[in-house]
Amino acid sequence: MRCPKISSRVLAPATFPTMTDPETFDVVVLGAGASGLMCASEAAKRGRRVLVLDHAKKPGLKIRISGGGRSNFTNLDIQPKCYLSGNPHFCKSALSRFTQWDFLERVVQAGIQYEERSHGQLFCTGTANELVEMLMADCRRHGVVFRFGTKLARWRGAAKGRMRWEPRWAPFATSLVVATGGLSYASIGATGIGYDIARKWESAVLEPTPGLVPFTLRGQDSRDLPTLAGIALQATVNFGEVSFTENVLFTHRGLSGPVILQISSYWSAGQAVLLDLLPGVDLFGHLKTQRVRQPLKMLRTVLLDHFPKRLVEVFLEVDLADRKLLTVPIATCKKRPPTASRNGRLFPVEPKAKQAEVTCGGVDCDAISSKTMEAKAAPGLYFVGEVLDITGWLGGYNLQWAWSSGWCAGQYV
């Protein structure tokens, strides 16, 4: 059998174990998720013979469970500033060449009903399974071959980067596309195999960390949580120069809700975040004014105009809460507003990695072409989707990155 025309250092036949009459493809895609399916269908449209491999028994598992089963598949306001990366310019090319409007057009053509929610988020009104079926139908229409329940077991020898497949058969291919995702959702089989492949072929990997995660609290704040669990209200959360204003949800272990998930992608371990439970309002100034206007009114009553009862009871001792404003020293009002924890509005937190929705970090974008998604040090090797060091905000940004990056690679593999 004639060897594929490709750099011998990267994806030459030696990359795969030799077998009797192995199958031959132009493109092998590792991962039948959002970016992998998009890349496969685009490559097949160009007449490329494409094989998609996945360890799962069916495609698009993460798509199916996203958005509570309805998939927040994109956002009307996709902008590069909504993505975190060591190379903040990398995402611009892909996002501009395959936009949210391009994907939305496909959704409409497929007859999938959708709805717009807050902040431009688009969800299926049916189930996320419709999106997966749309992608699979497009792949089948153009002859993409699938092999499910197939695992890339391990590497044999760092020098040659030799891989062994399970079951024991090995396709030849001109191009290998790594669409294996990050470490989020380990419960459905997420692994770090994509990072291993990048390292073997001299592409750096930035330390993967959990993103879009709830926070757990420590110390005195954690002891108050059972009382506060279930309370949701609008808040502003700051970490350094980054801030978001959205709902925060108190849980039995800590803090969750959209605003917490957003800031978690920026947060660094061992650091504190600033939580303001009354954004845009100067509570100290308000209490000072009320002390003059209604001196006989109880502090508790004034605060209940702004906060749930349970929150007021946790942050104010009974003897202080039941005092009249006239008898509450101004300094005390400034020191103890229920917009703060006992650490002066600074909450010490640590993320629950097992609940991460995305993975921050990943394959270093400086090692990848932003136009083709090809590894600069390894011609014929491509990386798309979450395996790259690109992390979007909560709200459909990460799936749009999957569509855009997969589409771009599909034009060149």
Describe the structure.
By secondary structure, the protein is of the alpha+beta class. Helix 1 links the parallel strand 1 (24-30) and strand 2. It has helices at residues 34-45, 61-65, 91-97, 100-109, 129-141, 193-200, 220-228, 258-264, 283-293, 299-303, 309-315, 318-321, 330-335, 397-410, and strands at 24-30, 50-54, 72-75, 83-84, 114-116, 121-124, 145-148, 151-156, 162-166, 172-178, 205-211, 215-217, 232-239, 242-250, 254-256, 272-276, 346-351, 358-363, 381-383, 391-392. It contains 14 helices and 20 strands. The chain folds into 3 domains: 13-210 and 356-410, FAD/NAD(P)-binding domain (3-Layer(bba) Sandwich), CATH 3.50.50.60; 215-277 and 344-353, Elongation Factor Tu (Ef-tu), domain 3, CATH 2.40.30; 283-335, Orthogonal Bundle (Helicase, Ruva Protein, domain 3), CATH 1.10.8. The strands form 6 sheets. Strands 12-15-14-13-16-17 form a 6-stranded antiparallel beta barrel. Helix 1 packs parallel to helix 14 (397-410) and helix 3 crosses helix 14.
